[in-house]
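Contributing new complexes? Match this layout with iron/sulfur cluster.
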Amino acid sequence: MTSVYEQLLVREHLAKATPAGTLSEADETRFKERVKELLDEQNAVIVAHYYTSPVIQALAEETGGFVGDSLEMARFGARHPAKTLVVAGVRFMGETAKILSPEKRVLMPTLEATCSLDLGCLADEFGAFCDQHPEHTVVVYANTSAAVKARADWVVTSSIALKVVQHLHDQGQKILWAPDKHLGDYINRSTGADMVLWDGACIVHEEFKAKGILDLQKIHPTAAVLVHPESPASVVEVADVVGSTSQLLKAAGELPNETFIVATDRGIFYKMQQENPDKRFLEAPTAGDGATCRSCAHCPWMAMNSLERMIASLETGSDEIQVPPELIKKALVPLTRMLEFPKD
Ligand code: SF4
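Output block (do not edit by hand):
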């Protein structure tokens, strides 16, 4: 089977993924002040994902914005009164914000920031897959384009996916799941639901290696292992806790362990360390036997979010998310189902 790296579209976009450079302290301070001025002038607020850099996350917090997972970001953006949302994350998050708040202007530091799951699930091919399974309820992960969401019955994030599929399975429904095959497989094994899976993967989570984690645990025998379910089944098997970013964050606070091995994007360490200053967080290894490190536990597209790009977007209005009104109307239906699904 072709690995997600070998897919032409993913390689093309990865080649454009220029990470933000390191700034001097003076430049960082100057750029942050400029962003603050622009946010005030334009009645704008930053909505940032946990995987963006600590600088962006801290700035979102300092300016009354928000840091969270994609579900929490969507909820915050929809209820905040600001006229402009500056979504620091990847493109599907900006599109989700626009679908939920079409009257607001949604800017991103760069529209080039995308996601291998979104790239690997093109609307036409996905539509044909749905046509082959007309008796299935279509559940798509939030990491998809507006056009793919428009074809779905449900949109879910990793924090709610298991509950929604369990709910549909309890009603006797068959599920068509896309695009992350590892998350789909995890949900399938957990719920026993009748599911067909799209063959997509996250280039960051697919790189974690069970052997590397077990070797690291020999050095830190009291460490708890936290794993995001976009990781392969072999990695999920060695986890003490499997969950979305916000669920892993919660586990880091609640478990009595002092050390944690964390198999998700290392951007999460900013919040984990902030909330648990006395605990220690270690990156799960990504290079195991026969593998080379491609993402090194950090999403190359999330790394494109920088202060300079945020300033350029706010100053010029570039990198604004546009979603056609007919897609907004269709995609809003499965997104609203997710937002109205009981959290607990
Ligand atoms: S970490 Fe993976 S799922 Fe998240 S945006 Fe990056 S490629 Fe997509």
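Reviewers usually confirm one structural detail per submission. For this one: Residues 117-202+327-340 form a domain with the Rossmann fold fold (CATH 3.40.50.10800).
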